[in-house]
Hints:
Layout: H1 12-26, E1 38-41, E2 55-62, H2 63-78, E3 85-89, E4 101-108, H3 114-126, E5 132-135
Antiparallel strand pairs: 1-3, 2-4, 2-5, 3-4
Amino acid sequence: xxxxxxxxxxxxxxxxxxxxxxxxxxxxxxxxxxxxxxxxxxxxxxxxxxxxxxxxxxxxxxxxxxxxxxxxxxxxxxxxxxxxxxxxxxxxxxxxxxxxxxxxxxxxxxxxxxxxxxxxxxxxxxxxxxxxxxxxxx
Length: 138
């Protein structure tokens, strides 16, 4: 259904749900979650909002190491050292091939912003984290 022209969409309910989700996810651990596929975290002080050219660092891990890795990524995200959002899977994405695999994503606002991508890469390297980089939509 199309909104009539001139009427503004009230986003307050969506924003309220997003705030509740972020509050829930702030203390969640991948190993203790059921019913949601991702746990997300955003910096305390917002960084640049995502563009249509957002990028993602993909970090592969397993169920045993996911909690500790997530704690490190979440803390670096909280302080603004990483991108505009990070998230971790709470279940395998391999469709039964490897039930213990997990992914952590660190999202950057713009994959074409070489300086910001290099900054996030350096922060991950400083944490001892190996990640591949790609565009979110490509």
